[in-house]
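Sample entry (402 residues):
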Amino acid sequence: MTRTPLSPAQNLPGEEKARQNFPPVFLILAFINLFLLTLILFWKPVLSFYYQERAGRLLLAVVPPGDNAYGGFACLHPFSEDLDQRARLSSAAQYLIKAKQLAPNQSLSYYLAGKVDCLLGDYENAVQAFQRFNELRPKNPLGYLEMGFALLEACPPNGKCPNGLNTYDTWRKAGVTAEDFLGMAEQARQAGNLPEALLWYQNAQRMGMELRSTIAYTRYLISQKAGSQTQADQALQSAVEMDKGWLNGEMRFSAYSALGKRYYDQKAWRPAEKTFRKILADYQESQPFKAKIPEIYRLLGDTLVQISIEFAQTDRLAEALQAYQTSWELDPSQGTMPLVNFLVNYKKDYLTAEAVLRQSLPNSPDTNAWLSWSNRLGEILRSQKRWEEASQVYQGMLERDP
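Predicted structure, serialized as tokens:
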């Protein structure tokens, strides 16, 4: 009997079973090999990332999210003296050492290490960390910014170190300009954070922008708020004497006005006169300061009266009259009573004082001013024994404000 050979389709049952099981087994083995290869190649970066994450959490516990003090820059922030915070930062530093050992080219480890070092007050190590970060991420400006602040602390007072590193070249590599710091300063100033604004103004000055008077005036505001009047006076006088680098005309006007008033309070009449006249020479034709000029004329008038008394210079009364009259013409609400009182007390010119009051009353800014001016008019009429007219004035006051 002749045996017919088996065709390919007539395989034995055991062989068929083995063939059916071969693809799944092969895939499993391939997956295991791939997993092991991946683990061999990437376990260090993965573990490094784990240490970075742990360090980041500890850093956030010290400087929480949303803490924008000092612009959010760790190296501008004062180093921590709190023992609990320093313990967290030291732990973060140890995690980052491990992360760098496992993956020396992961830039984030160096960026976080620089921030941690700054908060620990270790600015030299911070500079080294940011240098490495900048090598790995040369187009990221954050590293250059933080490194610049670290250099200011590592090599005071201007961030220029013996090894050639300096703050301002470092910032320029980040594309930072003085205008960038000026914007940060204005945000801090408007938020009422004058110490932070001062830091940004100083950095803008170091980057080449002329802000000397702005810096001195900001110091004046800080000292005044702290109640340090002697320091405030020195800073204000310095700002005006330098007269360079004002943020804007409004700040300059405010500084000159504050200095003039300070001289007035100190009874330093001649410096006060000089300051008020400087303000008027520079700003009386300037529209933005139109509303403030009448007060300066009034203060000049008061100053000139005091000079005439203290130095027996009666001719200065004519200048005082002109100053009071200009203040009144520009703004009767401010200038009426000073002019009237001057005319009565120093010139004994009751008729002109009466005329000023009668002209001003129809344009009084409010009821209180109207009553005050009317009462002064009544006093002037009584002093001249014009009883009926005085009675009419007082009757009008009762009708308006019974």
